[in-house]
Amino acid sequence: MIESGIVRLSAVGDVALGGAFAGAWEETVPHTVAHLAPILAEEDINLLSLDCTFGQGAPPNPEEYVVCAPAETLTFLQQLRINVVSQANNHSLDLGTPSLLETQQMLKERDIEHVGAGLNLKDACRPLVLEVRGVRVGFLAYSSTHPWVGGFAADESSAGVAPLDPDLIKANLCQLAGKTDCVVVSVHWGKENLHYPPPDCVELGRQIIDWGARIVIGYHPHMIQGHEEYGGGHICYSLGNFLFSDYPDQRLHFLGEQRESLLVRFVITRETVRVEEFVPLEMNEAYVVSPMTGDRKSEVLQLLATWSKAVQAPDYDDYWRQLVRRAELKRLSRVFRDEVIAAGWSGGTRRLLSVGGKSIRSIGRSVYEILGFGVNER
Fold it and tell me: Smallest Cα–Cα separation from 70: which of 110, 29, 30, 19?
């Protein structure tokens, strides 16, 4: 018997249901459901970031990745009992406004609530409040619109995501004050492929707790990042990729630690929030997601403790900048090796000279960050 006044909430990471997964979902879904449904079935609310779009439309920015999926794959969310998704991300408008609205209708038909994107700014910022056994849990969601994150911000007359603007977040939380017992804020932020959040994200995460939220859940980096208890609340800086499939036709692939994520289980009362459990997950080559076991599970939990401790160090800003420089030097070396040397000097040079604007900007970004500029990307 579940005690009155207690709500159980689980959060998992980023999800994209198209690409290679779309061709294998009928075989893959039953195995993932068998692994995870027993856990998620115990929860009252299950949350994730839906980093793809459904329906029809034209890409507003065809040069960027277009992450879309067929409608039938939404069965996956239903079978896992997902009932809240954040659309505040850089892919919810990959096929434009018509697709965003069509996706929201598809979610509604499947009894899945959405937050963080809409027909205009007011719609995108509209909170979701769910009452379970007398406890009112509110949800808000925001996405960075930094050029290297790429969310399309809604405004008074245009569709988009709720932008990751501190003043806006603070105002929205103030409007919820006294109307909920616990507010959960989903944030799509940070720098990809690192286990550490930018200092600006750490600062903003703590501010969101100060302004009245009790749980902050981070998405976008494609890697697990640390957890912090702060001010009576909890900040999970990134849960990693729960199920973000490859899109081979766009040369978008996820390997190794990009296929690992966390399932975080919270217990919420009117007065307190606590983390009951961190469950490390892994996605295999067939896109089956399952809880880790054995040595890798222990290793990831130990690493989580290390990543969590780092953000509280007094010299974290300096550590972050050094980390970014190393990562971008490694990235440039890999591009040079794979795109130039592997093709031969003559062919490789021609390849570099012929790359598109996105690739040129990406190389420029690496140089910019190696020099110590613009590395926060909030």
Answer: 19
Chain centroid to CA 318: 25
Residue 67: φ, ψ to 5°: -105, 95
pTM to 2 decimal places: 0.92
Please check whether residues 176 and 323 belong to one and the same domain.
no
The verdict on residue 121 lying in a domain is yes
- Residues in contact with 57: Cβ distance below 8 Å, sequence separation at least 6, in sequence order: 95, 96, 97, 98, 99, 102
The reply to whether 349 and 289 lie within a common domain is no
Closest CA to 158 of 95, 97, 87, 93: 97
Please give the single-letter amino acid code of residue 127. P
My answer on whether 324 and 263 are in the same domain is no
Q: Are 109 and 221 in a shared domain?
A: yes
Residue 30 lies in a domain: yes
Range of the domain at 192: 7-310
Instruction: Identify whether the C-beta of residue 87 lies closer than 8 Å to the C-beta of residue 100.
Output: yes
Distance of alpha carbon 43 from alpha carbon 40, whole angstroms: 5
- Final residue in a domain of this structure, among 293, 310, 327: 310
User: Residue 115's closest CA among 128, 105, 101?
Assistant: 128
Contacts from 282-286 at CB under 8 Å and sequence distance 24+? 283/241, 283/242, 283/243, 283/259, 284/259, 286/24, 286/27, 286/28, 286/31
Confidence of residue 374 (pLDDT cuts 50, 70, 90): low
DSSP notation for 283-339: E-TT--EEE--HHHHHHHHHHHHHHHHHTTSTTHHHHHHHHHHHHHHHHHHHHHIII
pLDDT of residue 148: 74
Count of structural domains, the chain: 2
What average pLDDT does the segment 115-131 reach?
98
d(CA 122, CA 171) in angstroms, rounded, equals: 12
162 and 24 in a common domain: yes
Q: What is the mean pLDDT of residues 266-284?
A: 97
Residue type, position 81, single letter? R
Look at residue 326 and tell me if it is in a domain.
yes
CATH number for the domain harbouring residue 133: 3.60.21.10
